[in-house]
Amino acid sequence: MSGKPRGLRLFRNLNAKVAAVPMVLTTLVVFVGGTLWTVLYSFTNSKLLPRWQFVGLDQYKRLWSNDLWNAAIWNLAFYGVMSLIFTIAMGFVLAVLLDQKIRFESTFRTIMLYPFALSFIVTGLVWQWILNPEMGIQEVVRRMGFETFTFDPLHNPDTVLYGLLIAGLWQGTGFTMCLMLAGLRGIDEDIWKAARVDGIPKWKTYLFVVIPMMRPVFITTLVIVAAGIIKLYDLVVAQTAGGPGNASQVPAMYVYRYMFTAQNLGQGFAASTMMLLSVLIVLIPWAYLEFGGKKHG
């Protein structure tokens, strides 16, 4: 009798399981299959069309000896570090301000989250206009009487990444703020009461009590933001097209260039594989901390 319920577990929520079959098959065939296919052909000398001519690590040697790829990696690393620091810091500060039970909180939350609803293409075009020296911030300030004012980050190789960073922060900070606010609202009210009774300043409570308790929220936010940074493409194409020169090139643009313009699929596959490896480097530690750490604990 005890074996029957165990045998019937397979048929529990049968409709839901059957409905999930197409999605599971699509994931296995398209995502897993496509990923394996890309990795395998990154070891070939494919040009215009895929062909199985094994060349070992030659594509990867060419990749890392290519100045354009190295420039793209450096640009992404700089943008990524700055974006992670400022997005998480600004998101947390805004969440703390909204957590003070201010009036019209829902309105402010909606306004801050609105940019996240826009695509990176729209964001890039909007900020391209705003930062355009002939019609944007520079021109507005000069019309106010400050004729020597200069603010043209997108046309200067030394500052173009900061121009991209401004647009990226404008779009992503609201989403980070909502994640942080959800974490703050999950803090037990008794902790705040105990801190007030003990006379602990609010900033110390946030710094030494709240932030350590929000560790899972910070880790999840870090993973989400980092995964978005690695595949950065739309924003750069819309805002700078990789210029001036190669000052704002990113790995995703390198992949597109070699796969669809230079007709060198093997090189594009190698670059794609390195991007996949970067994502795994971010995801595997997060998965271990979230699941493996709990199991060992």
Bulk shape: globular
Q: What name goes with the CATH superfamily of the largest domain? A: MetI-like
Task: Report helical residue fraction.
Answer: over 70%
State the domain count: 2
Beta-strand content bin? under 5%
β-strand number: 0
Overall SS class = mainly alpha
Contiguous runs where pLDDT drops below 50 for at least 5 residues: none
**How would a textbook summarize the main sheet?**
none
Keywords: Cell membrane, Membrane, Transmembrane, Transmembrane helix, Transport
Transmembrane segments: 20-43, 72-98, 110-130, 160-184, 205-230, 269-289
InterPro entries: ABC_transporter_permease, MetI-like, MetI-like_sf
GO cellular component, one term: plasma membrane
Describe this structure in words.
This protein has 2 domains: 1-41, no CATH class; 58-296, MetI-like (MetI-like fold). Helix content is 71%, strand content 0%. It contains 14 helices and no strands. Helix 2 (14-41) packs across helix 14, helix 4 runs antiparallel to helix 11 and helix 8 (160-185) runs antiparallel to helix 11.
Topology:
Layout: H1 3-8, H2 14-41, H3 58-64, H4 67-98, H5 105-113, H6 120-130, H7 137-143, H8 160-185, H9 189-197, H10 202-213, H11 215-230, H12 234-239, H13 251-261, H14 265-296
Features:
MetI-like fold; 297 residues; mainly alpha; 14 helices; 71% helix
Give a short summary of the structure.
The chain has helices at 3-8, 14-41, 58-64, 67-98, 105-113, 120-130, 137-143, 160-185, 189-197, 202-213, 215-230, 234-239, 251-261, 265-296. The protein has 297 residues and is an all-alpha fold.
